[in-house]
Write a structure and sequence with these properties.
GO terms for molecular function: methyltransferase activity. The protein is of the alpha/beta class and about 280 residues long. It has 9 helices and 12 strands. Strands 4, 5, 6, 7, 8, 9, 10, 11 and 12 form a 9-stranded mixed β-sheet that branches. Strands 1-2-3 form a 3-stranded antiparallel β-sheet. Helix 7 packs parallel to helix 8.
Length: about 280
């Protein structure tokens, strides 16, 4: 992403050497992130497109991370591939329920521009809410991951406004206990001491803390606000499996500089893969 937070369009109606566009995709773009270090094939006019949330989520993975990361609800793979782009020792599994968005993720991995990442990344088409034997059969094994990141559809069902079915699926909860379901899965697939990272609305904090209980501790909450004097519009939350450490509230990430729409220096570095936002 550039300093304004926009992807750079590098493609359009065709993509040489790749599988056909997903059915009913409505066209696609190929967008550069991290100043061209990785690219995403994304729907042009439908579904969820990766942006600020995905880049902030990826930034919670420390620079020296190793092992295997699961990106739950990965969409086209923005957050997972952003983490892999910055952290060379990390393998990434993109987990996505929508067949259309999973197809975009596979097409992203097939891009020549992503050749350096493709050997460390894979796609699992599965519902994050699966439990027990059904989850394991879908490919999400117990205690198999060192890091889990997730950008759940955190809008409540009554907030659903868009007629775009793909976008509605990505943005609005189908179940009131969505955070419980997703964090149950995160706890099951993480190794002891593994880190989970979530980006959500501030209104979701109570539900998140309830779902962490008995599974995760050492919760760190970072507000994300448009400008220094504004209320937070997102929270970035990390926790460790099995930790008993206390909750910490961290200084806010301020998205924009004092004037205009350009990113603040911190946000520009985080969104472009030049810096991480690791735990304290």
């Amino acid at each position: 992403m550039d300093r304004r937070g926009r992807g750079v369009t590098a493609g359009g109606p065709g993509l040489a050497g790749a599988e056909p566009p997903p059915a009913d995709s409505g066209g696609f773009t190929v967008d550069a992130f991290h100043f061209g270090r990785f690219h995403l094939v994304q729907p042009a006019d439908a579904g969820h497109r990766a942006g600020m949330d995905a880049m902030l989520l990826a930034a919670t993975v420390p620079d020296d991370a190793r092992g295997h990361l699961a990106d739950l609800g990965a969409g086209a793979g923005g957050a997972g591939l952003a983490a892999a782009s910055r952290v060379p020792a990390l393998a990434v599994t993109l987990v996505e329920r929508s067949p259309v968005m999973a197809a975009y993720a596979r097409r992203s991995l097939a891009l020549p521009e992503n050749a350096g990442l493709a050997g460390r990344a894979s796609v699992i088409e599965a519902d994050v809410g699966l439990a027990g034997a059904a989850r394991r059969a879908a490919g999400l094994a117990d205690h198999a991951y060192d890091h889990v990141i997730m950008n759940p559809p955190f809008n409540e069902g009554r907030d659903r406004r868009t007629p775009d079915a793909l976008k509605a699926e990505a943005h609005a909860m189908e179940h009131d206990d969505l955070f419980e379901r997703w964090l149950r899965t995160a706890a099951a697939i993480l190794r002891p001491g593994g880190q989970v990272s979530v980006i959500a609305r501030p209104q979701s904090l109570e539900a998140l803390l309830a779902a962490f209980k008995g599974r995760f501790g050492g919760v760190e909450v970072t507000p994300v606000q448009p400008r220094a004097a504004d209320d937070a519009i997102r929270i970035l939350v990390t926790a460790l499996k099995g930790s008993r450490a206390r909750l910490q509230l961290r200084p806010a990430i301020v998205i924009h500089a004092a004037e205009g729409r350009d990113f603040s220096p911190v946000m520009a570095d985080l969104s472009n893969g030049r810096a991480a936002w690791p735990r304290r």
